């Protein structure tokens, strides 16, 4: 089976990165095609847009699946998850308008 990276003579992580860049380019093209749809698209136009989105989704999923071979144990989606909020009262402004811990150093 041929991977997108192998088709262009690149293998390994470099090929995987190039495939990711190509996916980003495809995302831009799909986004532009959808923005160019009329306000009331026909059923054929809607079906075409949906087919493009599904094909792109398939490419993204395949790319994420291929990441496992390069990033063993590393969660590539970790950066997109919201961080837990950190409540640090020391970073809040004090009643006199300054920031407590920093003002204490002066």
Averaged pLDDT, please?
Answer: 76
Q: What is the number of strand segments?
A: 0
Give the end-to-end Cα distance, rounded to a whole number of Å.
66 Å
Count of separate DSSP helical elements: 4
Strand content: under 5%
Gross geometry:
flat
Helix-strand category: mainly alpha
What is the oligomer described by this structure? single chain
H-E string? HHHH
How many strands, which pairing sense, and closed or not: the largest β-sheet?
Answer: none
Low-pLDDT runs: 1-6
- How much helix, percentage-wise, in residues? 40-55%
Write structural notes for this entry.
- Residues 79-106 are annotated as: Disordered.
- The chain is an all-alpha fold and 106 residues long.
- The chain has a domain at 13-72.
- It is 55% helix and 0% strand.
- It has four helices and no strands.
- Helix 2 packs antiparallel against helix 3.
- It is flat and about 60 Å long.
Concise structural overview:
The protein has 4 helices and no strands. The chain has 106 residues and is mainly alpha-helical. The chain starts with a helix and ends with a helix.
Record keyword descriptors for this entry.
single chain; 106 residues; mainly alpha; 55% helix
Topology, pairings included?
Layout: H1 4-7, H2 12-35, H3 43-67, H4 100-104
